[in-house]
Amino acid sequence: MPEVIESLILDFLEWLGPEPRPYAEVMDAWRTSCPRLTVWEDATDRGFIARRHEPSRRALIQRTPLGQQYLQKQRALAFLEGGSRRP
Fold it and tell me: What is the reported pTM?
């Protein structure tokens, strides 16, 4: 299962993109009732995503610098391995 979670975290970070997304949109797309698929919680615990509020806007979710670094590292590893790993 750890390999599945790693792959889903990478998918989540890719999907989230470089710009913040509304919290409700992220929850609609990534919420799960399966206790074994803890993508949201794992990404938060690792410091890969953060929730922030801006005046006059709803809550936003964004990649942190650490999340961006992790994503770039995984992309580089996938490239070096000839694309056999999922970025």
Answer: 0.79
DSSP string, the chain: -HHHHHHHHHHHHHHH-SS-EEHHHHHHHH----TT--HHHHHHHTTSEEEE--TTS--EEEE-HHHHHHHHHHHHHHHHTTT-S--
Strands 21-22, 49-52: parallel, antiparallel or unpaired by DSSP? unpaired
Query: Per residue in 4-34, pLDDT tens?
Result: 788 889 999 999 999 999 988 998 888 776 6
Give which of 52, 26, 54 is closest to 40, Cα–Cα.
26
What is the Cα–Cα distance from 16 to 68, expressed in whole angstroms? 11
- Class for domain 2-80, per CATH? mainly alpha
